[in-house]
Amino acid sequence: MLDDQFSDRLLVWFSQHGRHDLPWQLERTPYRVWVSEIMLQQTQVTTVIPYFNRFIESFPDVATLAKAKRDEVLHHWTGLGYYARARNMHKAAGIIVDQYKGQLPFTVEGLMSLPGIGRSTAGAILSLACEQRKAILDGNVKRVLSRYYGVEGWPGRKDVESTLWSYAEQHTPHKCSSDYTQAIMDLGATLCTRRNPDCEHCPLNDDCFAFKTARQHDFPGSKPKVKLPHRETIFAIIENSRGEILLEQRPPAGIWGGLWCFPEFSGEQSVESSLAQQYGYTIENKIEYKSVKHTFSHFQLLIKPVHIRLKGQTNKLNDAKLSIWLKPDGDRKLGFPAPVVSILEDLNNSKRTVLNES
Asked: Choosing a second label site near 274 at 20 to 30 A (CA), which of 58, 60, 97, 349?
């Protein structure tokens, strides 16, 4: 199939079957496309839509985002995961206001100089919002091109990625490039799916290597399997006499950077003695809940929640950490990791399974 046939067939299919009414398509500005592309990284469209709508309602432009407090931004990201995306976007907004007069750069190099924007995201912003002929290579496009050409190997390998980029550049048309960019993403998301692709309805199936050889599930190649290490931590759910729960803000970088969590302790520490030493608290009773497993990209975390009620009336905080007392059912306009949200909701509804009480 000639290059123009590849894009032409894809564009014809897109005009009839593509997605044309996604929220970020209704008003294609560089800012809205940027927000959507960052949210869509490793996240499904159906999940992103309500988050995008709420985010844009609160932060309609770069200037508003730049002025916002980090807690506000992380609050709007709670549940989406990969929170570095939100922190990078907030930081990039400040740079755009300070260095680019509130306008996103109009070059790949300029966009890639901003935190959290790589080559594919930069290409998507310039193609979808600025009608520039720029190739993209997100997960959907990698899957389409890997199957179409039978590109062996995991796309995370530099040589495989370079091959896919060359095909992506080759097929991006000079005309209707924004429609083509959306079309190839849509094809990967709706037909050329990771499992059980609908090859019969694919406009490219006549020349697709994977389809002709019945090897659809061999492409793209899998990431080499590595056994994830396990870590354990104790979440101390500390409750005072007013029914408020103690939360502490994590450091700005690292796992759950900038989010609000329960105080943590290692299994080697006695929670009782640690609370007495670090906070000066005296425990009235302690309830151990069923452990929760949370998987990160590079390790698995086993969380052991321990609900602690304090003796007497106390409002004391650990001066060494940024911390607050919060009602479990209160209006929480802060950023929380998913396990903390789940525990707070269970506390509010008295759902968590008790293993031991003392």
From this structure: 349
